[in-house]
Specification:
With 183 residues, the protein is α/β, with parallel strands linked by helices. Helix content is 38%, strand content 22%. A six-stranded parallel beta sheet has the order 3-2-1-4-5-6, sandwiched between helices.
C-alpha cells in the first residue's frame, strides 16, 4: 500500500502586521506562536515558521528592547522550527511623536518566499500578513510555481487576500473562536 507524504508547510509571519491586525480586531494582539502553527498546519508537516520583525533600538527604548530580546530568545526554545529575521527599526527625527517603522522586513519575506519556491523547501506557503505589498509575489508564486498558497488574516487586514483572491488555495479570516484557540 503506498504511503502518503504530508505536504510540507512553511509559514511566513509578518509579526507587526499580524499583531496589529489582531489588536485592531480583538483589542489585543498577543498569541501563542506554537498554537498558531499547530492550528494552521494540522496533520501536515511544518517545515519552518519564519518570524519577521523590526528590532527596537535599545538606546531609545531600553526596556522595550530588553523585553523584545527576551521574547526573540524564547522563540529559539520552542518545540517547532522557528527562524527569526529581525531588522532595526527606523527612527525619525520627530520620534517619539512619530513612531519608528520597520524597513526591509517585507523585502526579506518576498525573498524567502521566492527562494523557498525555487529550492522546493515547501509545498504550501502560508503568508500571515494582510499587507498589499505582497500582491506581486503571491501572483508570481501562483503563476510560476507548483506551490499552494494560504493566508490567515484578521478581518481588518484582508487587503492582500481581496487583491489576490484567486491565488490562494485556502484563506481564512481569524474569527474570535480562532483567536481564542491561539492565545
Amino acid at each position: 500500500m503506498p504511503t502518503t507524504i504530508a505536504p510540507r508547510v512553511e509559514i511566513f509571519l509578518d509579526d507587526s502586521n499580524f499583531y496589529n491586525g489582531l489588536q485592531q480586531q480583538f483589542g489585543e494582539g498577543r498569541y501563542d506562536i506554537v498554537k498558531l502553527a499547530q492550528r494552521i498546519v494540522g496533520a501536515r508537516t511544518l517545515s519552518r515558521m519564519n518570524f519577521y520583525t523590526g528590532l527596537v533600538d535599545p538606546g531609545r527604548q531600553a526596556q522595550a528592547a530588553q523585553k523584545q530580546q527576551s521574547f526573540l530568545y524564547s522563540l529559539s526554545k520552542l518545540p517547532i522550527p522557528v527562524q527569526v529575521f529581525a531588522r532595526p527599526m527606523k527612527y525619525y527625527a520627530a520620534w517619539p511623536a512619530v513612531p519608528p517603522q520597520e524597513k526591509g522586513v517585507d523585502a526579506r519575506i518576498v525573498q524567502d518566499l521566492i527562494i523557498g519556491a525555487v529550492d522546493n523547501t515547501y509545498d504550501v506557503a502560508v503568508l500571515l500578513s494582510g499587507d498589499q505589498d505582497f500582491i506581486e509575489v503571491v501572483q508570481l508564486l501562483h503563476s510560476r510555481f507548483s506551490v499552494c498558497l494560504e493566508t490567515y488574516y484578521p478581518a481588518a487586514r484582508r487587503h492582500l487576500y481581496e487583491a489576490a483572491r484567486p491565488c490562494f488555495a485556502h484563506a481564512q479570516v481569524i474569527t474570535k473562536e480562532f483567536y481564542d484557540s491561539i492565545r
